[in-house]
Amino acid sequence: MQEILEQALKEGRAQIEKGEVASYIPELAKADKNHLGICIFTKEGERFEAGDTQTRFSIQSISKVISLAMALEKCGFERVFEKIGMEPSGDAFNSLIKLDMVSDAPYNPMINSGAIAVTGFLTEVVSFETMLEFARKLCMDPQIEVNRAVFYSEMENLSRNRAIAYLLESKGVIKTNVESCLELYVQMCSLNVTAKSLAGLGLVLANGGMHPESGARLLDPDVVRIVKTIIFTCGMYDGSGEFAVSVGIPTKSGVGGGLLSVVNKKMGIGIYGPSLDKKGNSIAGRAALKYLSEHLGLHMFAS
Q1: Domains 2-59+191-295 and 61-189 share a fold
Q2: Is residue 98 predicted with pLDDT exceeding 70?
Q3: Euclidean distance between CA atoms 182 and 165, whole angstroms
Q4: Predicted model pTM
Q5: Which end of the chain is flanked by fewer CB atoms within 10 Å, N or C?
Q6: How is residue 192 annotated by DSSP?
Q7: What is the mean pLDDT of the chain?
Q8: Cα 150 to the chain's mean position, in Å?
Q9: What is 61-189's CATH topology?
Q10: C-alpha distance from residue 67 to each of 3, 114, 210 (Å)
């Protein structure tokens, strides 16, 4: 396994120069594009890692997985998906075109409009402190904190997400204070994690919502099933379909460079690689996952 992981790291590094770090949030532009780390946590308790697995970075859109799980736990399926769809959007993660012109509801919870709508539900039932503790438990990482520099940088460059949020309010999707909703959304996106944190989250999801060491139930089985399905169909933005065919592992990306991957009943995989492709996904992480999928037989539909 370690040899395969090291080779996956090499495959990923060969792609780094083809991408660029996110720059629309100034603080993210400071990331070293050459960083790459991969971590695997297996259900049997094995831990494998290679590269920059200790580096902390902001979770960004991978927090949408945590927020969706909490919303489903607290509000239930019917309420969450009454105002949010479950279909791939085919558009960029921060697009508002279809929300304005085609549909009164966000297409899914993994794009910004859908995640902001989910956060609207959460502001009515939980505090940020509760969400932070929830994230620490799911990621098996008690050291997770808000990256204050990223938080302030994102709050100062929030025009597009603010436009999305107020559009959602005008359509009756958000019925709480919009600015409070946006603050919680950005706080969650600004959580500092590592590749290990994401591997831990992946393993909890792969393990049906059970903590792999204590055996404590962290998530309802139905919530886990829904979350994993949405990740598979929508987790890589408008590149989700091609990724599902070529890699076949439910994966959620974030523009901070993270990738959260769930190999059902087997393992969680966490990756940090801030060099992004044009769709906002880690370009090196994608190549590394493809290698792991092929050489470990991890594709969901592998024969």
Answers
A1: yes
A2: no
A3: 7
A4: 0.95
A5: C
A6: E
A7: 94
A8: 17
A9: Beta-lactamase (3.40.710)
A10: 35, 11, 18
Q: Any residues with CB less than 8 A from the CB of 2 and at least 6 apart, and which?
A: 48, 50
Q: Which CATH number fits domain 2-59+191-295: 3.90.660.20, 2.60.40.10, 3.55.50.30, 3.40.710.10?
A: 3.40.710.10
Q: How far apart are CA 293 and CA 161, in angstroms?
A: 34
What is the full DSSP assignment across 194-226?
A: -HHHHHHHHHHHHTTTB-TTT--B-S-HHHHHH
Q: Which of 140-154, 159-173, 204-218 is least confident?
A: 159-173
Residue range 179-207: mean pLDDT, rounded: 98
273 has a pLDDT exceeding 80: yes
18/276 Cα distance (integer angstroms): 8
Q: Report pLDDT digits (tens) over 24-34.
A: 899 999 999 99
β-sheet with 251-253: strand ranges across = 47-51, 37-42, 267-272, 258-263, 251-253
pLDDT for 97 equals: 59
Non-local (6+) Cβ contacts of 162 within 8 A are: 178, 182
Across residues 117-146, what is the average pLDDT? 97
Encoded tokens for 258: 């993270």
Element (H, E) at 39: strand 37-42
Residue 228, sorted as left (phi over 0), alpha (psi -120 to 50) or beta, turns out to be alpha
Q: What are the residue ranges of helices labelled H in the chain?
A: 2-13, 63-75, 77-82, 97-101, 112-122, 128-139, 148-155, 159-170, 178-189, 195-206, 221-234, 240-246, 283-296
| CA separation for the pair 4, 1 (Å, rounded) | 5
Q: Which residues pair with 262 in a beta bridge?
A: 268
- Residue 132 CB-density burial (10 A; 0-12 exposed, 13-18 middle, 19+ buried): middle
The residue extents of the domains of the chain are 2-59+191-295, 61-189
pLDDT band at 303 (very low <50, low <70, confident <90, very high): confident
